[in-house]
Amino acid sequence: MKITWWIFTLSTLWIYKQRTNLCEATLCSTSCLIVSNATDIFTLDFETSTINPVISGLTRAVAIDLYFDLGLVFWSDVAELSIKRLDINTDNKTTIITKIGVCNGLAVEWRSSQLFWTDKTNNTISVSDLDAIISQIKARKALCNFMFWTDWGVNPKIERANLSGSQRTAIVTTNLYHPNGIDLDKGNRRIFWVDEGLDRVESIDYNGGNRT
C-alpha cells in the first residue's frame, strides 16, 4: 500500500508538548500524532508507541484539526455532511455545522478563533467562528496571513489566498496529478503536499518557488 495513501487517509496532525499543558495531560504525554481512521480519532505517542482513543463510534470522520489552547478537536463527517467538535476537557461532543457538502479539509486559525473548511460538493471554501456563524468565501476561485488548498480537478493545482479570500493565486500548476494532502512549515514558510497519483511528497515556499 502506498505511503502517500496513508498520509492522506489518516488526516494527521502534530501535537507538541511545548504548546500547552492541556494537550500534554489530556491527549498524550509527549509529542504525538492525532489520527482519524474514519470511525475513530486517536493519538499515536511517539515515545511510548501507545495508541490512545480520543473519540470512537464516528460515522466517517475525514478532516481533523485541533485548537490547542482550548482543547477542542474538530472533524468533518462526510457521511452526515457536517462538522463536529469535541471538548477534551469535558468530553462534550457537539455538531456545530450541518447541511454542507463533502468536506475533505479543515483548519483552525487559532489566532483569530476561526474555522476554515473546503466543500467539494459546493465548490467553496467557507469560514466561521468557532460557534459556527458562517460566512462564505467563493473559492475555486484582512489579514496578512494565507490559506492554501489543493485542487484535484481536470487541471490540478495548489492555490493561495488571503484569509479573507482575496488575492487568490495558483502557486503550483505543473507536475501534479492528485495532490490530496497539504500542510505548512510555518517557521520556514514552506508548503508540503502529498500527490497520491505520483506517489511522492514535495515542498515549495509560500510564493511557489524553490520546489523540492
UniProtKB/TrEMBL annotation:
It comes from Stylophora pistillata. The keyword Repeat applies. The keyword Glycoprotein applies. InterPro entries: 6-blade_b-propeller_TolB-like, Cueball_EGF_LRP_Nidogen, LDLR_classB_rpt. Residues 1-25 form the signal peptide. PROSITE patterns: LDLRB (PS51120). The gene is Lrp6. LDL-receptor class B repeats lie at residues 145-188, 189-212. The lineage of its organism: Eukaryota, Metazoa, Cnidaria, Anthozoa, Hexacorallia. This is Low-density lipoprotein receptor-related protein 6. Keywords: Disulfide bond, EGF-like domain, Glycoprotein, Lipoprotein, Receptor, Repeat, Signal.
